[in-house]
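Bug #77: duplicate submission created two jobs. Keeping one. Sequence:
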Amino acid sequence: MYRITSNRGVLLVGICVVFLLTPMLVVGQQKTTLTAQEKKVVDFLVNDWGNDYSVTSVDIAMDAVGVKQSEETRFRIGNHIKEHPELHEVIRRWGWVTLVLTPDEKLIARTLINAERDGKPSPNISEIAQAVAINEDQTTRGLAMLERYEIIKRDQAAGGARYKVVPRYFKWEPRLDFLFHIVTLGRGRRFNTN
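Kept job's structure:
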């Protein structure tokens, strides 16, 4: 049995323990595993991004390759994109948020950001729905997705009935994550651009 007699020895043992446990910690972190259909969407995006200045979003790509729209599928693809910025320069330049949110979700986020930036109380669901010109059910689903992506959180000061933007998303510049334009070319190709 060995006896550690110096601070260097303790430090060395500590470093060895960290190196031994690191593979276990990495294994514990789950990465998103995509289905064949979800991979098809990601492949489409990687090939589409940058063509005609496109910053195409997941929902448009799902339509383009014939994958049924589903919030769960979008969320899984979005997490994959968030976890893998090395897939394409567009992710690194514009940010994963720009690519994974639908137009309504971007407008909901912008509504919350603008209210907070203007020093107004956070709007309730019906006020957000009116501002975005969607119904309350669509608003609730959009808020739920924004919350899942940790872009917003429930406002505890309002009893959890309203939402606040997570501070790192409050200032959307320099990438303008919540701005977008949908372009449809004469030949039918649809994509987003910022």
